[in-house]
Amino acid sequence: MRQLAGPTALAFALILPASAPSAARAQEDNTPRDRPLVVQIAGPCVMGLDGHKAGCNGVAYMAFPSSGRIDFTVLRSGMSVAFSGETDENEDGSYTLTLDSVVSPQSGRMEAEGQCEMNVEKDGRTVRDIACEAETEAGTLTLEASGVMAAADIGDADKMDDGIEDDSAQG
Question: pTM for the whole thing?
């Protein structure tokens, strides 16, 4: 994996700020039915901006019942970004999330067009692949990942707080 330098590193820094790594944080409602579903996907991942790629520490699938939003949140040392949308389809182990935004602590929610596709083995735990592509005003963001799913306790999401707020209730 080559190191990012110059304009590419600057672009990542603007989109993916240097904050403590974590998944997106849910709204303050702590009733069990309103708590987000957090599924960690442990395995290799790579994210990119306009074709320049860098490794990442992990991916979390997050569903927010209180707002109806769904995210694939990418964690990278000191940075995070969430590929986010509200419309999804799931058929025979093939899951598609239509993206309408990308969220990061520094940039907030940026409009985006694209999708994430996830293919899961019949065992229901093994993710063959995740592929996301989002067109934003800052460029094309991508994610490639695979691994094994593990449900995370909501306390885990709080420990991984990166400052991303689920602001979908604001519109």
Answer: 0.72
